[in-house]
Amino acid sequence: MMNSPQRKSTLLRQSLDAASPVVVPCAYDCVSARVVELAGFPAVMHGGFNTAASLLGLPDVGTITQTEMIQAARHMAEAVEIPVIADVDDGFGKSLNVARTTSEAIQARLAGMYMEDQQLPKRCPSLGGGGVVPAEEMVSKLHTARRICDQQDPDFVIIARTHASLAIDFEEGLKRGELYAQEGADLVWVDLGYDESVLEELKAIAKRIGPHAHLVANMTENVGRPLLTTDELYQMGFNLITYPITLILTATAAMTRVMRELQEKGTTRAVADQIMPVGEFREIVRFSEFLDFEKQLSQTDNA
Q1: CATH fold of 8-246, please?
Q2: Is residue 110 within 8 Å of residue 85, measured between CB atoms?
Q3: In Å, what is the CA distance from 93 to each residue of 115, 141, 156, 217, 278?
């Protein structure tokens, strides 16, 4: 019931520095974060798309607040032993806002954060992203975030995410990725489109930006983008690989199937084998661990 005293940021850096890919699925709540952990992944992503949907029932179009985002990520970090990487959108404002956002993320015992260069009103790329701020503004935010990290947690990982390849063109995405890597980002995430052209674009990203920083690749199902394996992406030069909306879409599809069956048939009998047994779920939420802890407290009280 106690998290490791070692900083999660240090654990994440150790994983990134190892000669192997780091796969970090994105969770949408504490239960899904536990599922990621129990499956054996070394870290978990927190995402704005997931938090807006699960917490507010809204699309990821910039309406969620910094407090809501950090709090959701904080709960995940408290629920799992593995590092959690938080989505902080654009840092929630200018450099002064970024300073507070970075500090709040560190105080929440998160391992890192990813910040993007979208302009307001922002929106998730899968929902049709908007424009980007000037590169100089993003660089200023990166400098601010790095300054806070140097003061509070030097191992805290900063991921710079650029939407320029979608908002302007691919060459601008490459230029910004190089710049962000040189200006304080530990990892660079260049968002790409949803067609076969991403294969050549990934190779170009690895060639241009790979020498300057670790690289992030994201795999999203059912949008037209080819799904590459972990080994294929790692061989290209990407060592942090995330599946940003896999879990929330999988869970929503399963819930929809079961609820439709109940509504139409008046029973879940035919789909009962698709529903997790209560005993298995209790282990995910560490019920037996709490029972043991409760017994320890009772013995102490009665001593």
Answers
A1: TIM Barrel (3.20.20)
A2: yes
A3: 11, 9, 20, 25, 43
